[in-house]
Amino acid sequence: MALESPVRSLVLWFPDWPVTAVGAVSPDVLPAAPVAVVERNLVVACSASARAEGVRRGQRRRDAQARCPGLRIVAADAARDHRAFAPVVARIEERVPGVQVVRPGLCALRARGPARYYGGEAEAAHMLLATLRDLGLDGVRAGIADGPFTAEQAAKGGTSDREPVFVVPGGGAAGFLAPLSIAVLDAASFGRGMAPAAPDLVGLLARLGVQTLGEFAAMPPDRVRERFGERGIRLHALAGGRDSRPVEPRTPPPELHREVAFEPPLEIADQVAFAMRVAADDFVAALGAVDLVCTELRVVLVGDRGERSDRVWLHPGSFDAAAVVDRVRWQLAEDVGEPGTPAVPDRTARLRSGVTLVRISPEAVDAASHHAPAIFGSAPEERVHHALSRVQAMLGHRGVLTPAIGGGRWLAERQVLVPWGDRHERGRAGIAADRARPWPGSLPDPLPATVFAEPLPAEVRSLGGDPVDVDERGSVSAVPAQLIEGGRRRRIEAWAGPWPVIERGWDAARSRSAHRFQVVDADGAAWLLVCEDGVWTAEASYD
């Protein structure tokens, strides 16, 4: 089957994009130390300072650390790379529509339209590089050639810091590619719906003595097809500059966020919430138009003096317009005071002036079909949700709390109260991870049924009436025989312990050392007692 003629393509290459993405997420990382992004124990990208120390792409992690002992290792994260690249692509699309994202750090465009509009291919490329420099992205390279593959090689191999744009004249792709190593085909793709080139195929070509693209392109196509099949024919076409792949522009995602600016700034929380009603209706309607609902909402408040409050709110179901307005009001209440009060906060609040901008955007969405009402009426869980949400709307964000079990050595620490519809600041997964940690000295199951909010004062005495204590070696001074709690003397029938609880032994100011006991009195009541520095308290009781 004959391949179509290559189309003039413009490729923008962002060297070491994974490192740039790390800097976008954690701006303090890059200036601090040399950075290398590692995947499967191999360096996939490194910063300029790491490269100056001898770190190279493809090195093993231990070899890179041997060359640069101060190297900071960051795990590769494809989601982070895509997330950081999305606003860059959006900025490019403001200048030139029809951008295809090949991968984070590499994108392609059709060259004809921008060249006609900006007066030439090189002029269009320089304009895009200037736009990217305004975003703080220096070192971006541009290549223009027949087909995306040749344009990518031009951006990577033909550019320099002095001249970041390289143009391969029309019809000159084969001559430009001829001296390049056959290894550049390792990452070449075969077009839509086809897999990348297999490294073993390229390695086989090298073992057969084919070291350059020109040597491979000079081989007879029939022999290539006979030995390597359709995949080899595709590679053969790329090596000869006959890249027939079209640039396939992405469909820009819909603008789902909404912003409301206030001039002059509003200083009453209820005024801000009231002004957000129309924007909240529009926000929910825009999601519904693409059959989505918002399950996590990001609210950003900007003060007149440049202060910024940024928070993600969650919902047990999905946000409607009223719930969005409630979250804006609650965030204002937490950052600047109670609703209806002036939005000039105290010294502990985040916003210290009136509100000039409110931005709402979906942090997480779900298909609307997953949140459709039940056919035969609302389920009991939905009725409970609506009732509690109504109470919460009247009392505020922390007006309705639900319990969760967290991690810790002390029972009071393990009780976490979470606002209805929200998650613990570390998330449910974070609470479960905390709970699963070892926590040496924590109490094993079964746990007491009643945990006292404040430990009850108690005394433990021996048969002779002497106070019982525990020394530094964990030895009991006498056999516990009497428990005095709430002015009542109880005879101890059985006891177990002590079990040491030692916290922060390295910190003299916050260190804590205590011993736990389980005792059963003559009435059959079971107690969990704590002896700390000779002072006894009742932490909980077993019902």
What strand line-up does the widest sheet have? 15-16-17-18-19-20
Proportion of β residues? 25-35%
* Whole-angstrom Rg: 33 Å
* Largest sheet: number of strands, sense, barrel closure: 6 strands, antiparallel, barrel
- Give the full name of the CATH homologous superfamily of the largest domain: Reverse transcriptase/Diguanylate cyclase domain
Q: How many domains is the backbone divided into?
A: 4
CATH class of the largest domain: Alpha Beta
CATH architectural type of the largest domain: 2-Layer Sandwich
| DSSP strand count | 20
Find the CATH topology of the largest domain. Answer: Alpha-Beta Plaits
Shape: elongated
Distance between the termini: 81 Å
Task: State the helical fraction.
Answer: 25-40%
Q: Please report the number of helical segments.
A: 17
Backbone structural class: alpha+beta
Give the overall pLDDT as a whole number.
Answer: 83
Provide the low-confidence segments as ranges. Answer: 189-197, 337-349
